[in-house]
Amino acid sequence: MSRPEILAPAGNREMLGAAVFSGADAVYLGLTGFNARRTAGNFTPDELREAVAFCHARGVKVHVTLNTLVYDRELSGLADAVRAVAAAGADAVIADDLATAQLVKSIAPTLHLHGSTQMSVHTPEGAKELAALGYDRVILARELSLEEIRAVCEASPIEVEVFVHGALCMSVSGQCMMSAFLGGRSGNRGACAGPCRLPFDASAGLKPGQPGRACHLSLKDMDYIPHLRELMDAGVASVKIEGRLRTPEYAAAVVTACRAVCAGQPYDEKLVRDIFSRSGFTDGYLTNRNDGKMFGVRTEADAAATRAATPKARELFRRELQRVPVHYELSGGVEDGGVKLTARDDDGHRVSVYSADEPQPAQKDPLPGIERALGKTGGTPFVMDGLAAAPGEGGFGFLPGAAWNELRREALDKLLEKRSEVTPHAVQAFEMPTYPAHTVGQLPALAARFANAAQCPAEAAEKLQYLIFPITEAESIPEAWRGKTLLELPRVMFGRLEQKTAARLDALQDAGFAGTVVNNPAQLRYTDGWTLYGGLGLNVTNPMSAARYASLGVQGMLLQPETALTAMQAVAPGVPTAALCYGHLPLMLTRACPLRNVRDCGKCPGGGTLRDRKGRDFTVTCSAPGGAGVRTVFNPVPLYMGERLRELPVDVAVAAFTTETPARVSQILDLLFNAQPFDSEFTRGLYYTNN
User: Fold this and answer.
1) Per DSSP, which regions of 493-553 are E strands?
2) What is the DSSP letter of 527?
3) How far is CA 588 from the centre of its chain?
4) Are residues 395 and 456 part of one domain?
5) Which site in 115, 364, 412, 499 is 20 to 30 Å from 136, CA atoms measured?
6) Confidence band for 17, pLDDT divided at 50, 70 and 90
7) Residue 92, φ and ψ in degrees, nearest 5
């Protein structure tokens, strides 16, 4: 059982130093753009180069985050960012968009590519697909149990990385649009405002318009430190600490704790708890206890504990950890007029220095004193790992202690300087592809997504180009509809659901359906023989990513609804594109049920309502009532573009129905078919923003 890499956050230069000095094996950080924590300090290209030099000198790897949704106008800047990472000599890029992956492989193919948690990979097939796409590591979603992590590790042809400490988003990473649609700050673009931490209430007896007071969307921080040995046994290659927006003291405390547990030693649990928590910690996902105890908020008592613990945590990185083995070779002596000290490391670096003073004949064996002097490596990253002595005629002789100290300092300074030399990655010439713009002003065909077969009016089915149903509804679809019906696969799948879904697809292969909608890269692996369309879960926002999915067999795709119309126009990958024209937008998908604090899962009818501090009601649905499902929280106000369909620069406009009655579905479809204004409150979403 090998010790995993301890991967620490570095939101700024001070945090970087704290993580490294306290013993992190690797750090992850972001450039000033294209990363999921844009409000962190982050690094300029020059600062990145300095950071890599600092880290590599100490045997620490640097992973750079380029893990946000990207629009067409940003692709050239993203390519420049990849070149900057390569020039700095960083070790890996953390990417989620397939455009980013393509740019890394095209520009700097020796850079390692890690699949971000924003890709929502939860399964063995997901890890296999990332390997096929050229990724070297998969970063699993935070929602997995230990058994599910173990299953991925056993099947994965690439390294597996998991989060072990830090903030838990309520939503599955990469599948949250709450901040974007409620506040105009996209979490998928690195600007999350954290609206889920504000009060939401699911309590019974709320009066209409009454503000919510409870916090049913805020989870405690995760803490898997006590389980690190189990994760090691499962085969996890890297354990990751969340927290680029936190303090250097936080990074140092958690890194120190992780190192201790991995070594089988005790750690300061109180310090870890006090340095930052939200009413304590949870391991609910890892241990399959997804209950109400997972929820918590940061209190004043938590903040007071942090203030008290900070000085103690600061001591953890006052001096750096000595961990780089240095091997000494000593030769020369009295007859040679001086001594030569060579210092080398395990990476092939080698330096030599010479005594300024001439040694004098020694009265006793000087070697024990020499060893003591050379072993005093405090204040450096080095630790002495042997001395090979080859004295000349007359022996090493005598030199004062100060002379040996100076030799050691000079040798280690030179060795550190040599280890700090940046080795850039080779960069290949790359010409950015050009993509045609989509035609504007044409009326797109209409399609509709229904929650179940009973929701679809028979008269509307004749008029719609496509009918979209969850695959769980397959057997309920009339045969007359199947020729235009697409079966949608779940946006996220945990545990055995992937195997069950793959088996169901096989069984339905000859049932006459028009195709299937894939929502995750993993689903590309078990849909052979099906006509594939890309769904919301793929998060397609730019033409390079769209073209990459098209090359993988996707025959059409729904564009991510955070995308403005101007950005949509640039996405024309040679296959049809689609956009939502109606629907209560899914703000988040979550494995932890926000209704669990007020409702018995076994008696749940399959959903409920959350109310925010402004008195707005958010519908919550569950894909599998009884505890095993994924919950979706929907926007209270629907998106509507019926009278502006010609402004959608796509081939197909999709109406997405959730909890509407069949009668209401008919009304809305009539409005869409006749390009009429909406008959109640609605939103245009982000379609007319300048994103």
Assistant:
1) 515-518, 532-534
2) -
3) 16
4) no
5) 499
6) very high
7) -155, 155
**Residues 462 and 611 reside in one and the same domain:** yes
Span 212-217, average pLDDT: 81
pLDDT digits (tens, 9 = 90+) for 367-426: 999 999 999 999 999 999 999 999 988 888 899 999 999 999 999 999 999 999 999 999
CA distance 129 to 134: 9
Q: Do 451 and 404 sit in the same domain of this protein?
A: no
**Residue 507 placed within a domain:** yes
What is the bridge-based pairing of β-strands 631-634 and 617-622? antiparallel
Nearest Cα to 397, choosing from 360, 369, 357?
A: 360
Q: Helix, strand, coil proportions of the chain in percent (round to 5)?
A: 35, 20, 45
User: Does a structural domain hold residue 591?
Assistant: yes
Q: In the block, which residue shows the tokens 């779940």? A: 490
Two tokens, residue 378: 């405090």
Domain count, the chain: 3
Q: Are the beta carbons of 320 and 21 closer than 8 angstroms?
A: yes
Question: And the tokens for 520?
Answer: 């995750």
Judgement on whether residues 502 and 361 belong to the same structural domain of the protein: no
**pLDDT (average), residues 210-237:** 92
Radius of gyration of the chain (CA): 29
The structure tokens listed for 451 are 């929650």
Same domain, 43 and 110: yes
What are the structure tokens assigned to 335, written together?
Answer: 């007859």
Both tokens of residue 104? 């890394």
Same domain, residue pair 542 and 413: no
CATH number at residue 261: 3.20.20.70
Distance from the first to the final alpha carbon of the chain: 47
Residue 80 lies in a domain: yes
- As given in the structure block, the two tokens for residue 24 are 């992190």
**Closest Cα to residue 482, out of 411, 539, 531, 520?**
531
| Whole-number pLDDT of residue 625 | 62
Residues 160-178: tens digit of each pLDDT: 999 999 999 999 988 999 8
Q: Phi/psi of residue 303, each to 5°? A: -65, -40
Instruction: Give the residue with greater pLDDT, 206 vs 146.
Output: 146
Range of the domain at 403: 324-419
Does pTM surpass 0.90? yes
Burial 336-348 (b: 16+ CB within 10 A, else e): bebbbbbbbbeee
Instruction: Assign 627 a pLDDT band (cuts: 50, 70, 90).
Output: low
Compute the average pLDDT of residues 625-629: 64
481 and 375 co-located in one domain = no
Task: Name the pairing type of β-strands 112-115 and 554-558.
Answer: unpaired
The CATH number of the domain holding residue 631 is 3.20.20
pLDDT tens, position by position, 331-375: 998 878 889 999 999 999 999 999 988 888 888 899 999 999 999
Q: Are residues 257 and 372 located together in one domain of the fold? A: no
The answer to whether residue 348 is domain-embedded is yes
Cβ atoms within 10 A of the Cβ of 293, count? Answer: 13
Buried/exposed code over 132-151 (b: 16+ C-beta within 10 A; e: otherwise): ebebebbbbbbbbbbebbbb
